[in-house]
From TrEMBL:
InterPro entries, per the entry: HD/PDEase_dom, HD_domain
Species whose genome carries this gene: Bordetella hinzii
Protein name: HD domain-containing protein
Domain HD: 30-135
One Pfam family here: HD
Amino acid sequence: MHNQEETVAHWSAVARAMAREAMQADPAHDLSHLDRVWTSARALMSAYPQADGVVVAAACYLHDLVNLPKDDPRRAQASRLSAERARALLQPAGLDARRLAAVEHAIVAHSHSAAVAPRSIEACIVQDADRLDALGAVGLARMFSIGGALGRALAHPEDPLARHREPDDRRYTLDHIEIKLAGLPATMCTEAGRRMGQERLAWMRAFCERFAQEWA
């Protein structure tokens, strides 16, 4: 067990250093995001002792190497491009072929827009950990950061919670919660991921109610 923990610690440090040098960062997809994803993944792994921590760590830190804007027509390809870059970095560093393939799959499958189902527990953990960072207080901050970068308004001027209109997150950032984020907990692969996701979503919805009060 001690040697296994040392191996995971080694590869997590290696992958983190690679990400720091190679990733295309923005305020919502930076090294602190990767650190949080790895922290959540470790919490999720506690229920799955069979999961390969090396694969999970490498995928957590390298899943956003290619970060395309949300409105980029190539957005659905970002995870595949990240997986290819991850292999190009990890292979010369000595990661074995089985783990290389597993890391690639976990990176491709983590993306909501790629629509690739995770086929391993490692991919499930990485997907859930990344989606958890889109929820809760940090997820809200990241959402508004991305919306601002895309030039979108905070919310609809008269109906911020879209109670009498169709939500449109291409114009109003707050609408993104109901259009996409509210559905994330149901997509989680792990029981803990679903539970944590629901807790964070409940907080976001409470925020929305307070937001609407102040917006009025």
